[in-house]
Specification:
about 250 residues; 2 domains; 11 helices
Length: about 250
């Protein structure tokens, strides 16, 4: 499972990059405040007249930083952070599934899910370099049309092919909400539509935006981005933990 953990580590790095993006205003302000403080210290040596110093500017910047006054102008960035998180999560789950199926195919091959017939054209076989054994995870993803931006599809794939059944809980419900919001952010200007309401109807209880109303605009804040990221990480760690248990049992 070392490879699966490496995949998880990459997800954590991606989450860190999202956090840096969400905190861009704080980074800029902190840098500006530090630079002006250094300038102020140098000016104090030469000038005693307050009007010739940077005290006023420094005070204003510190007030903005203390109260996060620029956060309101970053709402679109926060929403785009959600889009990034959902994409990173889907890619990570796909990589873990692909790796787990391919590396354990000898132990899994007798399962019912592996009895389904797949058809291949000569062109497809050529695309796989005529090496289906090392591409079986990718083949299943493609042939079964598995979507890794939908929790029902994800859970079904892990259950049917890897004997892992992750129960639906707050963690899963938070991710479902994030995936649904990602869709309306990209396609509907962040406005809640009927499709989203249907998608999240059973995603309860959850910590992330427990109250959503039709035709309202979804706006995320930094704390909610952290909740979504932690839910995704917790889910991935649960999947990997279950995979490790499976390997131990079969060993």
């Amino acid at each position: 499972m070392n490879e699966a953990k490496k995949i998880l580590d990459q997800f954590k790095e991606n989450v860190s990059s999202v956090n840096r993006l969400a905190n861009f205003d704080r980074v800029v302000l902190d840098y500006s405040i530090k630079s002006i403080e250094d300038l102020q210290a140098r000016l104090n040596v030469k000038f005693k007249n307050e009007s010739l110093l940077a005290s006023g500017t420094l005070k204003q910047l510190k007030t903005i930083r203390k109260h996060d006054s620029m956060r309101g102008q970053y709402q679109e960035i926060f929403n785009q952070c959600v889009v990034l998180l959902v994409s990173y999560f889907g890619s990570t789950v796909s990589d873990i599934f692909n790796y787990s199926v391919t590396s354990n195919i000898s132990d899994l091959i007798d399962q019912k899910a592996f009895t389904e017939e797949f058809k291949f054209s000569p062109k497809e076989l050529s695309d796989y370099n005529f090496n289906l054994r090392d591409q079986i995870g990718e083949i299943i993803i493609t042939k079964k049309g598995i979507s890794f931006q939908d929790m029902k599809s994800i859970n079904r794939a892990f259950r049917d092919f890897l004997n892992i059944d992750i129960r639906k809980n707050k963690t899963v419900n938070d991710i479902i909400l994030g995936q649904a919001c990602r869709h309306i952010i990209v396609h509907s200007g962040s406005i809640v539509d009927n499709k989203m309401m249907k998608q999240i109807a059973d995603a309860k209880p959850r910590d992330l935006k427990p109250e959503i109303k039709l035709k309202t605009k979804v706006v995320f804040n930094f704390d909610e981005i952290e909740i979504l990221a932690m839910s995704m990480q917790k889910y991935l760690e649960t999947v990997i933990g279950n995979l490790e248990t499976q390997v131990t049992k079969e060993g």
